[in-house]
Amino acid sequence: MIDVDGHNFPNLALMRISSFHKQRGDTVEWWWSDFVHYDIVYMSKIFSDTYTADVPEPLNADRVIKGGTGYCIHLGNDGKEHFDKSKNTELPPEIERCFPDYSIYPQFPFAVSMTSRGCPRGCAFCHVAAKEGRCAKKVADVSDFWCGQKEIKVLDPNITACAEKRDLMQQYIDTRAIIDFTQGLDIRLLNQYDIEDINKMRVGTLHFAWDNPKDDLESKFSDFAKGFRRKSNIGMVYCLTNYNSTMEENLYRIYTLRDMGYDPYVMVYDKPNAPKEVRRLQRWCNNKIIFKSCPKFEDYQT
To answer: Residues 172-214: pLDDT tens digits?
Structure first.
């Protein structure tokens, strides 16, 4: 197997593939040499070429199978990334149902789960809707991924939009594990029942997003801050920049979130071609030592 993105985070597809083949009695290992012949080499790539360069296809295998979102994204003539659904390779049902083989990533002590797929938002800078549909649906139970680990990284793209979220939230509560919603909670959809469920969980850092400055979300973030049991260090909020936003709009989101007790985190769209001022903004905001010692971006000197 080849984890094209590197081994910086467990690849769920490869863990399921490994589990499937080991159950069949096959030998599974990371590809490591051109001098070893393999029956099958699986290459998985989650991120586009903008973030992760592809690797050469191995020649020492009877079959090479490539899959993952990264192989479906191409840069269009408009300079933006587009998802080509015709190139999307899904795991066969018999592999999709396999419990992940965590032994291939021994450096990570946590579990990963994806209990729902899809997102109704259809944001132009995101490929989830094109890949998984615009309806968030439950696709698995927590027990399909978790075997007692002390922490669970939730990969659901928008669990708060899922009709079965009450069931899923209770499953996460029942684990008593530390829950990390890595893809963010949709602040626009959180209601009092969601907040009550989150207050029952052992949560580390909560993640949200305020990507579109045209969305007036100040009251939504304020309501969650009032209902959440922590009154400081409430959560990290991703703020997309260099995508239909002015510097004034960027700073408004950052200052507003900080004043309410959130931790704003600047994401830069098309960073290699982003203006210098936007990249300076990211350095100022995301370096928390600088961010706390220099409260105003206007006073930040590089």
So the answer is: 999 999 999 998 899 999 999 999 999 999 998 899 999 999 9
CA–CA separation, 184 vs 37, rounded Å? 42
Please give the structure tokens belonging to residue 97.
């149902």
User: Cα(72)–Cα(89) distance, rounded to whole angstroms?
Assistant: 9
Q: Which residues lie closer than 8 Å to 39 by C-beta, 6 or more apart?
A: 26, 61, 62, 63
Q: Where are the domains of the chain?
A: 1-101
Dig out the tokens for 53 from the structure. 């360069």
Q: What does DSSP say about strands 178-181 and 151-154: parallel, antiparallel, or unpaired?
A: parallel
Question: Would you say 180 and 204 are in contact if contact means Cβ atoms under 8 Å apart?
Answer: yes
Tens-digit pLDDT profile for residues 150-171: 999 999 999 999 999 999 999 9
The pTM of this model reads 0.89
